[in-house]
Amino acid sequence: MKIHFRPSMAALGLLAFLTNCATTVTEKEKPSNTSQLMNMPAASDARRPDSTGAATSAPDARTTDEANGIAATPATAVASAAALAADRPDPNALSASAASAEREKEKKMTALDYRNMLANADAIIKVEPKNSAAYLQRAKAKSYLKDYAQALPDYATAIKYQRNNPDAYYNRGVNHLMMKQYKSATSDFSGAIKYRADDKESYFGRGVAKMQMYQYKSAVIDFTKAIQLDSTYADAWEYRGISYSSFDKLSEARRDLEKAATLNPEAAKSLKRYVGNEEGKAPIKPAPVARPGTGYHPRPGQH
User: Fold this and answer.
1) Closest Cα partner for 270 from 288, 279, 283, 251?
2) CB 145 within 8 A of CB 114
3) Residue range 113-125: average pLDDT?
4) What is the pLDDT of residues 153-162, one digit of tens each?
5) Strand partners, 55
6) Is 177 helix (H, G, I), strand (E, B) or coil?
């Protein structure tokens, strides 16, 4: 049974882009969600790499490692180069929790912030044409400004120079989701997981991409991993419940959707829609409805 749903804000973050982006339409409507995925740099005076891997200035002696585009002391630069050569995760990459926190800050950025981010990246690339962080910064700015196709070459270049950067894969995965390129999105989220195995949002994003390709049983595995990493991840509970309902695991679907509703009251809509409010009550099966030119159905007040 195919499900009609709209990808959550958690999976397809990109903030204000939601109302203008398309996705597949099947038989059921998407659940409600509140979290976000995309990783963008927040303004900060911190003397460390920002969320793109680009460096802020610092009074101590730092060098720029062109292979990975981050500012580092000689010791950390050597460690990054060694990890890159061995195809191991970059030791200077943000942790999963730090990346998630950065994403929460980033959703508050404005269109002007994204344009400034783009201009800053352009300026850096002119001086440092192999700076992977600058390419990633420019790619993300383009994604936020809805230039999804134009962002892809910059993501590819960022990964060329720093193939062990989980943020590059993660953000390109989101970009591919926005372009409805679900197989590519799945591959990118797998890349992010390879280099940051405890990133719940990468598992969630991969699960959403699989749902769009009707791979519901496989999606359940990814949502389960996201839940194992964060038992309060309401979106993962909700989407796993919907996935279960797609292949008639209604008991499991009810359990997950009830749990999601306790974590996020908006998920009660999915509980009613997919398994009914009470045992034995048939679920609602609405006809597919979409806004003109979009497969998204934001809740009232969402943008």
Assistant:
1) 283
2) yes
3) 96
4) 999 999 999 9
5) 49
6) helix
As a whole number of Å, the end-to-end CA separation of the chain is 30
Distance between CA 116 and CA 256 in Å, rounded? 42
Residues 6+ apart with CB under 8 A from 179: 148, 149
- Tokens representing 143? 């994604």
Q: Inter-axis angle of helices 234-246 and 250-263, to 10 degrees?
A: 160
Q: Which two tokens stand for residue 199?
A: 């990133």
Domains of the chain: 15-275 (1.25.40.10)
Q: Which residues are CB-contacts of 113 (< 8 A; sequence separation ≥ 6)?
A: 43
Nearest to 174 by CA among 5, 2, 18, 4: 18
Quick one: pLDDT band at residue 281, thresholds 50, 70, 90?
low
Query: Quick one: 60 exposed, middle or buried, by C-beta within 10 A (0-12, 13-18, 19+)?
Result: exposed
How does residue 51 score in pLDDT terms, banded at 50, 70 and 90? very low
pLDDT at position 93 is: 80
CA gyration radius, the chain: 20
Token pair, residue 22, equals 């398309």
Paired strand residues for 148: none
Determine if the pTM surpasses 0.70: yes
- Residue type at 65? D
Closest CA to 38 of 91, 117, 128: 117
More confident: 36 or 246: 246
Instruction: Please name which of 199, 137, 124 lies closest in space to residue 168, comparing C-alpha atoms.
Output: 137
pLDDT (tens digit per residue) in 89-105: 677 788 888 888 887 88
* pLDDT greater than 60 at residue 209: yes
For residue 33, the 8-state DSSP code is -
E strands, the chain, are 63-65, 70-72
